[in-house]
Amino acid sequence: MLREVESNSPTVEGTPRGVNGLASPGQEVSAIDIQAPENEGFAAVLANRNFLTLWLGQLFSQLADKIYLVLMIAIISSQFEEPGQTISGWVAAVMIAFTIPAVLFGALAGVFVDRWPKRAVLVLSNLLRGGLVVLLPLGLWLTQGWGQIGAVPVSFLLLLAVTLAMSTLTQFFAPAEQAIIPVLVDRSDLLSANSLYTTTMMAAVIVGFAVGEPLLGLSDRLMTALGVSHHGPALLVGRSYLTAGACLIAITPPPETLASPRDLAQIWTDIRDGLDYLKGHAQVRVAILQLVLLSCVFAALAVLAVRLAELIPTIKASQFGVLLAAGGLGLAVGALFVGNFGQRFLKRYLSLAGTLGLALSLIDLDWTPEQLWPSIVLLALIGWSGSLVAIPMQTLIQQNTPKDMRGKVFGLQNNFINIALTLTLALASLVETSVGLSNVFLGLGVLVGVGGVVTWYIADTALR
After folding, report:
1. What pTM did the predictor assign?
2. What is the dihedral of CA 239, 241, 242, 248, to 10 degrees?
3. Predicted confidence (pLDDT) per residue in 23-44, tens digit
4. Which region, left, alpha or beta, applies to residue 5 given φ > 0 means left and ψ of -120 to 50 means alpha?
């Protein structure tokens, strides 16, 4: 079995391990990725009660996130749709409200996550989101007769405000969840833990969007039968967040290393500290760059899948979800593979293999834009290859970042990814219209191949 030794790094947790797989006091070593003997598969992480509890909380929270967007569309359709008019403008406004906090507050949230106990952040962010959604029908009912501000109903402005608050709370939840995984999980099990994390995230995307509408309809009928009409969908989503919060209360993490509290005036100094850390540690910086590049590819595919479905004669444009599901399935299967067998390989070589697989699959899509099954297979391979990049790189970041810097680093990571996603979603359709779908796939493949190999070379050189 290959073992990875990467030096020139900060002090991070090493082996031997203490209780629950955590380093005991004084048991830290200077190494960037010294791997202890690793457990095979998911058995070890699922046997860890704290991680199992975190995973259950993640499951309910991720499903609620996805169904929340379906709920917003359902509310807009029932309360704000006018005869003969499209709801796309209303939906776009909600999506923008959901995106703004991700771009503005990602790095800022990470600073506070480093200062606060992670379990408290996880629990409160879910309980507050659950409370907001449960109270939303009451707020919409109260503001229904309040008229308009300009041309926008006050009740819709309330919907936007709740969405802004929900997304802002999510910016605290995401880095806290990423930062607590290496606190709860043995270093040698981090790859499996992140594989399960990624599998759950992708499953939530597929299941949440696929069954969100039927679940909301079922909950509405059940609540109507109980005499509480029109509140079932919001109660379903709100209870999912509340259930996540209740699960996370049961986590019993060991004492955490928190960043020293500072005045609010020092927030920008903390953010700069995170940027300086990335500047001085090529391994972590390159891992984040690879995750940003991967996110751009998946965001572009989310937009281009509609056009790809239009070109395939055997399906309708509205069935583009079949193509996205193929990519999601490939990523989930790849995550299971990495979780069970990835410990046998060096993480940087897994990432290189994934990068090359992504590049070749994207370039091959240039040749099969009008064929259903070849496109499905290639999209599944893109998902599979993406898992070989995402999971090892996320694990490397967790292993190589000091405890009191994880919030800042993960906050910056999420910030960079969200900015890249926003730009990609805005530009992908325009670029496709200008140069054609085949050329876009070809360009993406070349970009991923060159960018992935260059970043891998930088990281590999930093080890020498």
Report:
1. 0.75
2. 140
3. 333 333 333 343 444 445 678 8
4. beta
